[in-house]
Amino acid sequence: MFNWFRRQKVQPEQEQTPPAPVEDTPSEATPTTSEATSQEEYLDWAKKAFKNIQEKKATAEAVVSETPETSIAETEPPQEQEPVKEEETEDNTPAWLKKSDRLEILKETAIETPTEPDEDFIWSAKVLANQGRQAEDVSEEEITWLKKLRQGLGKTRRSLVNQLKAVVGQGPLNQDAVEEIEALLLQADVGVDATDYIITTLQNKLKQEALPPEKAIEYLKEIIREILDAPLANYSNPGFEPEKGKLNIWMLTGVNGVGKTTTIGKLAHLSKQSGYSCIIAAADTFRAAAVEQVKVWGERSQVEVIANPGKNTDPAAVVYDGIEAAKSREIELLLVDTAGRLQNKKNLMAELSKIRRIIDKKAESAVVESLLVLDATLGQNGLRQAEVFSEAAQLSGVILTKIDGTAKGGVALAVARQLNLPIRFVGAGEGIEDLRPFSSYEFVEALLSGD
């Protein structure tokens, strides 16, 4: 079972000096990121990872195809039958031959399996290699996710990278260059504060030494990772992994329409997939159809939903029931859906405070987190809405959704810089598999690596 919560977080020293490759050895060690590292080494590493994944898939398929079919003996006594027409004659083809024929038909109609890794696979493999991973340990799920992440940030990347290269590769930044970089970053909704920090830091570096465009982009990546990772210093759980053997309670907050209910379902699926027991408390009792939507996602993720069928049910009462259910069944993760109304800030704060009091009273030893769901397509507008929830709830992180539908992926930096909140999860698609724990290294590589 692949545990997404325990994927190794990249440390600065690992980014710069992962193990060097060893030729023709079983360890298939990772290539370095020094200048001496060639694209051929990365390609070789990617091919090894690709071959290993294909072999695992072939083994799994062979096990399925070799499973014998159960035959049931005919127990009814033979009866006299009238002669049948020629076209109705019984098919005496052996079962094994029928099975073989079916396999041949499947082979003829199946989509051809690639024999070599494509460009997206090679990029994904390089990102994993630079994090110190071994080729034989890479999973297909990770490759698939990195492809989606890169594709999801494509709009933002294409509007940034080429133009940035043209500007930062010309030595110290003059006023025109500063204004051009500022415009590019603000268009990507990086935010004024983060933009000023990036330009000042980059300008200081370029005054010290001239950097070619590629090197300047690499330095820019370091600056952005620093911004994204800075809020983690305020939290004792930087990896954001549910504690095994304890009750973890995650409250999800956010305005209506940001994908909060969908995110609840995806988190439930991710938790089950990673080996945690999980239930959902449907405490958004005021929005029409909210509870039913949560139930649909609960069914999809095979997670039980605790809900009260009555109208205008007290959200705190649902949370109470959820805690009782989680404790009695020794559940490890309770996900709480909350209301997203902004019409009345006072009522919102009172409701979230009441829910938090119930949690603190009924689950004193639980590990409690409060996550804000933020729609990336809203950019700075979403950030202003987020500030209301930041005041109303004791937030411990942000889930950034819908980055695949916007050129404003830079809002992630604004979240870290302006709200001083770490991004915990990122969503890049509508599927149940399209939400994963956030990695600043992978995000920045997907954002600033050229096509």
From TrEMBL:
GO terms for biological process: SRP-dependent cotranslational protein targeting to membrane. This is Signal recognition particle receptor FtsY. Residues 422-435 form the SRP54-type proteins GTP-binding domain. Involved in targeting and insertion of nascent membrane proteins into the cytoplasmic membrane. Acts as a receptor for the complex formed by the signal recognition particle (SRP) and the ribosome-nascent chain (RNC). Gene3D superfamilies: P-loop containing nucleotide triphosphate hydrolases, Signal recognition particle SRP54, nucleotide-binding domain. Part of the signal recognition particle protein translocation system, which is composed of SRP and FtsY. Pfam families: SRP54, SRP54_N. Belongs to the GTP-binding SRP family. FtsY subfamily. GTP binds at residues 254-261, 337-341, 401-404. Its EC number is 3.6.5.4. Keywords: Cell membrane, Cytoplasm, GTP-binding, Hydrolase, Membrane, Nucleotide-binding, Receptor. The keyword Membrane applies.
